[in-house]
Design goal:
By secondary structure, this protein is mainly alpha-helical. It is about 50% helix and about 5% strand. The protein contains 5 helices and 2 strands. It has a two-stranded antiparallel sheet with strand order 1-2. About 10% of the residues are buried.
Length: about 120
Amino acid sequence: MKWLLWIVACLGLLLTGCNTTILVASGKEFSDYQKSIKPYIAYWQKEGMTEEERLADWVACGGMKDGGFGYPLDPNARLSGESEREFMTRLDYAFQRCMIRSGYYYTGDCSSEYMKARPLCGAHK
């Protein structure tokens, strides 16, 4: 009997999926969780900036008009012998440095070693 209960419990977890399980454990509704996710551009701040100025600076630094950064990337900007990961990292770091030179600082989480190694997490130190 215990074996059958164990199987039912495991199947129940598999059927609910990871996102639902995490949300149930956190007590949040999925729609509330989705609303809490900010676009990348929202983590960049500058004293006295307007949304329009930030978007203009964002695009000038290589960001997308929708406030994102990433794909599609210009294949002509890729260096000879550069892997896709190296290519993306180089463009991302150049973008971060451009935003910092334009007077912006990153307000996201810089607590991990991965993030501490990125230009954006050294911008306000």
